[in-house]
Amino acid sequence: MIYLDNQASSPCDPRVLDAMAPYWQRLYGNPHSIEHGRGLMLAGKVEEARGQVAGAIGADPREIIFTSGATEANNLAIKGAALFAHKHSGKAGAERRKILTFATEHKCVLQSAKAMSDFGFETIVLPVGHDGLADWDAYQAALDEQVLLVSTMAVNNETGVIQPIARLAEAAKAVGAKFHCDAAQALGKIPLDVGTLGVDLLSLSGHKAYGPMGIGALYVRRRPRMRLEPLFSGGGQERELRAGTLPLPLVVGLGKAAELAAQEQAQDAARLGVWQRACLEVITRRGNLMRVNGSLEQRIAHNLNISFLKLDREAMLRAWTGFAVSSGSACSAADVEPSYVLTSMGVDPSEAQCSLRLSFGRQTRDEDIKQVLAVLDSPSLAGSSE
Ligand SMILES: *Cc1c(COP(=O)(O)O)cnc(C)c1O
């Protein structure tokens, strides 16, 4: 089996596993029990990992809050910002009550924003173009002094399209709105620097970047200070923003994964970019049989989302036997509803249903991609007409 589903989850890097190994058993303990030496040592490890995560995105370690993953980080960013504003709002109607986001965001962003309607917030879901990029005119028209928060992903999990975060964030700042970026798919794939991007909040996930599952982080800007209401009640960990005992081995693993992501981003992207161009050559040559969804310019090197024009779903899946690939988002794999990400880009629903995401990773071997090229060039993609 050739694993091409790295955007659903990437394998733990062996160096991450090595870094975590001592803390499951030999060096066990609670990093919050700082009245003894072991606890103090583990607390030091937490801070070391916090520094590694901060370093990977150009942040101050005090700006990193560990969470259980990007889903929780996105919930904390959006709901935390809205609930804080709600709690401290003055006269009715005088406050910022709008949340802007885009149609191709991850479900956890869309649902978190919409859930805030219970507290009087209006969520505006903005369109994207056929290339998957944010519709700039619609965004400009929606931005005003009533916008509390804008939430946009850096890299799309289905199409690999890269949004112009710095430009979007600058426009939000111009009307006094805060900006959240879901960077779950960006860490290790594109350069990430919170200062350059100009964001107030940024979400990360361990298992999308060769780290462990069950851990992520939220960057929360200190200057100017981004204020959030915590979602959990408890022991006041993580600067009172995220209660709960930190899962120390996972924290150590995320730190190592983030460090590797920053170090190896450029070389991973360069290697996979060569293969992506080789695939695109075949796809272009056989353009009557298949097409790539999403911008060809603004995309990561690790993704190809392809619609097969002459095949039905079964024939498409047959052609890709032996490959672990995604034909819809993991959450809704059982039903065959066309992907909302593709349909909101204006991809025809029948074409959207006959599409696959190939996502390549650090562990993907050159021989694996040669096999992808063989399938892309094979007669089986031509359907029954040939
Ligand atoms: C996977 C993913 C998430 C959710 O991350 P978890 O750590 O699995 O909760 C959020 N946003 C995007 C873009 C993702 O790809």
Structure overview:
The protein is α/β, with parallel strands linked by helices and 386 residues long. It has two domains: 14-19 and 62-247, Aspartate Aminotransferase, domain 2 (3-Layer(aba) Sandwich); 265-382, Aspartate Aminotransferase, domain 1, CATH 3.90.1150.10. The chain is 37% helix and 14% strand. The chain has twelve helices and twelve strands. It has helices at residues 14-20, 37-57, 70-87, 107-115, 136-142, 165-174, 194-197, 248-285, 313-319, 340-344, 349-353, 366-376, and strands spanning 2-3, 64-67, 98-102, 122-126, 147-153, 178-182, 201-205, 216-220, 290-292, 303-308, 323-324, 355-359. Strand 6 (178-182), helix 7 (194-197) and strand 7 (201-205) form a beta-alpha-beta unit. It is globular. The structure holds pyridoxal-5'-phosphate (PLP). Residues 69-71, 106, 108, 153, 157, 182, 184-185, 205, 208, 216 line the site of pyridoxal-5'-phosphate.
Considering the chains and any ligands shown, give keywords for the structure:
2 domains; Aspartate Aminotransferase, domain 1; 386 residues; binds pyridoxal-5'-phosphate; globular; alpha/beta; Aspartate Aminotransferase, domain 2; 7-stranded mixed beta sheet
Strands ordered across the widest β-sheet: 2-8-7-6-5-3-4
Number of structural units classed as domains:
2
What is the CA-based Rg, rounded? 22 Å
Give the helix tally: 12
**The CATH homologous superfamily of the largest domain:** Type I PLP-dependent aspartate aminotransferase-like (Major domain)
What would the CATH topology of the largest domain be? Aspartate Aminotransferase, domain 2
CATH architecture of the largest domain: 3-Layer(aba) Sandwich
User: What's the helix-strand series?
Assistant: EHHEHEHEHEHEHEEHEEHEHHEH
Shape: globular
Contiguous low-pLDDT stretches (5 residues minimum) are 329-333
- The SS-based structural class is alpha/beta
Please give the number of β-strands.
Answer: 12
Strand content: 5-15%
Given this structure, which CATH class of the largest domain is correct?
Answer: Alpha Beta
- Which bin fits the share of residues in helices? 25-40%
Largest sheet composition? 7 strands, mixed
Intertermini distance: 28 Å
Average pLDDT taken over every residue: 95
Bound molecules: pyridoxal-5'-phosphate
